[in-house]
């Protein structure tokens, strides 16, 4: 049986360092057999990749790639807390898209996160989801993603 970390290696994906919180919160917390991540922005090496509204300054295609980055950051937060191989199931994904007036393609943007989770976790990556258009996100980010995962009762990070 392949592990999630082995799958990441097969895909050529390296988990980034956990993004530093921008305010008073933790990147991820565990409650029972679930880990909840805080909203993750498309940060790479401590910097926001792109700023602006989707459908204006940011194309839907670029925003989809940014949602993938957000999901990767969320997986990194889970890994740092409990170890990626202890994930049993991705339960829920919530994606927020800073949308220009009239932009209604939020589901396609958040597919970037969902597709990454499917690639990494296979059937265990199939999840419930919300894709929400919002007026503004922190530091003018175009996308923000949070995830909830079920983990083994006994974890060995």
From TrEMBL:
UniProt xrefs under SUPFAM superfamilies: YjgF-like
Please give the Gene3D superfamilies that the UniProt record associates with this protein: RutC-like
Q: Which Pfam families match?
A: YjgF_endoribonc
Provide the Endoribonuclease L-PSP/chorismate mutase-like domain boundaries: 6-148
Which PANTHER family does UniProt cross-reference here? ENDORIBONUCLEASE L-PSP_CHORISMATE MUTASE-LIKE DOMAIN-CONTAINING PROTEIN, ENDORIBONUCLEASE-RELATED
Name-wise, this protein is Endoribonuclease L-PSP
Q: Which organism is it from?
A: Mycobacteroides franklinii
Give the lineage.
Bacteria, Bacillati, Actinomycetota, Actinomycetes, Mycobacteriales
